[in-house]
From TrEMBL:
Species annotation: Lachnoanaerobaculum orale
NCBIfam families noted in UniProt: CbiE (TIGR02467), CbiT (TIGR02469)
Protein's UniProt name: Precorrin-6y C5,15-methyltransferase (Decarboxylating) subunit CbiE
Gene Ontology annotations of biological process type: cobalamin biosynthetic process; methylation
Domain TRM5/TYW2-like methyltransferase: 248-322
PANTHER family for the chain: COBALT-PRECORRIN-6B C(15)-METHYLTRANSFERASE (DECARBOXYLATING) (PTHR43182), COBALT-PRECORRIN-7 C(5)-METHYLTRANSFERASE (PTHR43182:SF1)
Keyword Transferase attributed: yes
Annotated GO MF terms: protein methyltransferase activity
Length: 402
């Protein structure tokens, strides 16, 4: 049985590749979503058509027509946000089934070509049926390509850009690409708010001032802190270095204080998630303000005293404990139950907590963890008249389990 998975491109039949045209010609049955099927029907009128996009229902149609050569057609390219991937995996279980794949022209490559944008420089996001983290992606990438969710979805992204302070960036929206009513518009975010935008659209956001690298150990002064203790910049940098956070990490900051570690976690895990757990109501309000100021969309603030508020701890791969309200052992018992074997960093400034950590490290060995402890002494200069005096901060012990 031959199954042809075909990307037909943007919808204009003139952009169908020759290989895809031949594969459709050789197929008896064509399956695809309504818009896609209708775009090719006039050129292949002798075929049997099924209008369907649900993977399970497509599989049922295939099972009922095992003696036929079948083409399943998808919009754009089958390698870019396509239902083809899921169908391909399911088809591998079929006996005597040959799966043939045919790429198409994607909205990404088409719009980049039209705007003379190098695809290699583009970060790709999709807001079509899913939620993405917008701020950090745009802040750190020169070009961001987005598949939006209808015309109103494109406007909502423009509203977010304005709220983030990105009101001066150039946004290019491509509508009805490849069709006769194609329109490509480059303007500032606010200029799109009163436009009628087609539901069939995608966009490229250009940020010439994008950050070329992500750093950590931000100055303490950039955080709203009031009288709530803050993990100092130099100590924070060591903690984050020990955690070794990835872009898609799921992080926990237990005893988040004013949220300085949570904020920096969010910047590093810009495609992931950060859970900030804090029991002090004053600190919780400060975290809210810092989340707003840093546009940290991927932080979920949890007002609770650990071990409460740890509902997602078993999903985490990076965990920092800066304060546990005397419940450090109870928190560690929950973490040790995780199958993900997360990287854990614990900070301590009192000897009592250091003693607890010593026992925890012994227990960690039983669970297969490697461990280390680092002691940090930081002194910073302060002007005293015509002189600079070194002022010592509290000594901090940092334990890492991995």
């Amino acid at each position: 049985m031959n199954i042809n998975l075909i990307g037909i491109g943007l919808g204009n039949p003139n952009l169908l590749t020759k290989a895809a045209y031949t594969a459709i010609s050789n197929s008896n049955i064509i399956i695809g979503a309504k818009r896609i099927v209708e775009s090719i029907k006039s050129d292949f009128s002798d075929k049997t058509y099924f209008t369907e996009y649900n993977t399970e229902k497509i599989l049922d149609i295939i099972k009922s027509n095992t003696s036929s050569e079948i083409a399943v057609v998808f919009s754009g390219d089958i390698s870019l946000f396509s239902g083809s991937s899921k169908l391909f995996e399911r088809l591998k279980a079929f006996k005597n089934c040959k799966i043939n794949t045919f790429p198409g022209i994607s909205s990404l490559s088409y719009l980049c070509a039209k705007t003379n944008t190098d695809v290699a420089k583009v970060k790709i996001l999709s807001f079509h049926g899913k939620d993405e983290l917008l701020y950090h992606n745009i802040d750190s990438n020169e070009y961001t390509f987005i598949i939006t969710s209808k015309g109103e979805g494109a406007k909502e992204i423009c509203r977010k850009l304005i709220s983030f302070g990105f009101f001066d960036l150039d946004v290019t929206i491509g509508e009805n690409l490849s069709y006769e009513n194609e329109r490509i518009t480059t303007a500032k975010p606010n200029e799109f708010l009163d436009m009628d935008i087609s539901d069939l659209n995608c966009m490229i956001i250009y940020n010439p001032d994008s950050e070329k690298s992500i750093s950590f150990g931000l100055p303490d002064e950039v955080f709203i802190r009031d009288k709530v203790p803050i993990t100092k910049s130099e100590v924070r940098a060591v903690i984050l270095s020990k955690l070794d956070i990835n872009a898609d990490s799921i992080c926990y900051d237990i005893g988040a204080g004013s949220g300085s570690v949570s904020i920096e976690m969010a910047g590093l895990a810009y495609e992931g998630k950060v859970y900030a757990v804090e029991k002090n109501p004053v600190a919780v309000e400060l975290i809210k303000k810092n989340i707003h100021n840093f546009n940290a969309e991927n932080i979920e603030l949890i007002f609770a005293k650990a071990p409460e508020g740890l509902e997602h701890i078993l999903e985490a791969d990076k965990i920092f404990i800066g304060g546990s309200g005397g419940e450090l052992n109870a928190v560690m018992d929950i973490i040790f139950a995780s199958q993900k074997h997360p990287t854990i960093v614990i900070s301590a400034i009192t000897l009592e907590t250091v003693a607890q950590i010593s026992d925890i490290l012994k227990k960690a060995k039983e669970y297969g963890y490697d461990t280390e402890v680092t002691a940090i002494n930081v002194s910073k200069s302060k002007e005293v008249g015509p002189y600079n005096m070194m002022i010592a901060q509290n000594m901090v012990f940092i334990a890492k389990l991995w």
